[in-house]
Amino acid sequence: MNLLVLDPLEVGSPLPRSDRRVEHTRKILKKGVGDTLAAGLCGGPDVSCPVGTARVESWDGATMVFSFVPEREAPPLRPVSLILGFPRPIQVSRILKDLTSLGVRRILMAATDLGEKSYAESTIFKEKDFLRPLLEGAEQAGNPRIPEVGTFHSLSAALKSLGSALPGEARWALDPYRGEALFGSLLHAREAPSQADPAQDGSGRSLRAFTLAVGSERGWTDRELDALGAAGFRFASLGDRILRTETACTAAVSLALAALGLC
Length: 263
Hints:
Blueprint: E1 4-6, E2 14-16, H1 20-28, E3 36-41, E4 50-59, E5 63-73, E6 80-85, H2 89-102, E7 106-110, H3 123-126, H4 131-141, E8 148-152, H5 155-162, E9 169-174, H6 183-188, E10 209-214, H7 222-230, E11 234-236, H8 245-259
Parallel strand pairs: 1-3, 6-7, 6-10, 7-8, 9-10, 9-11
Antiparallel strand pairs: 2-5, 3-4, 4-5
């Protein structure tokens, strides 16, 4: 935990001994009453999220109370959004944690034609129980901002929610069969005018944001690929090795951040 992330309503309120943040503060950080630690107030991409210092005001063996002094506004999330075919439920928490730590701004998870239908009926998707992994990703990153997360019954519904591409937004769908070339080579090509330059989106406009699409473990159907193309997505691959959804997400987002000069 590189940052204590609190909900604004938790400041000054007793947190139970069983709270993992209390346990971490006591057992790992070895903090007690009067000690301070780096902290921030949790929020979404477009709300105020101050970062500052928390102080342990009390600990009675059952509950701990933190105060908080804001010092600055947290840096914004990265201008990267992701459409993701429903992954295996056992991997959802890890994916959300990793994407949050990378600073992804928006995550749209959708049922896909080839995805396992039972995934959508799992507890984590039905109850939208996403907050804990998002907070853990924020704690890891040292930034209390968390991405917007939505779930959709189909790719078409996710694309409708996404809306039209904004100026400077590059859209890429990852597919090993329809991809024009390797994603990294397309992003860094400077000579061919039909390919995307790191500083441009392929149309001479300044590149300011990415929206990526990664399918579920069985990939996209032709129908879905056509829908992505109609929504302004170009196609690229991550090489000749078939990757797990969670691996492809991390690789694609990392390449996009590098193209934006953010990693």
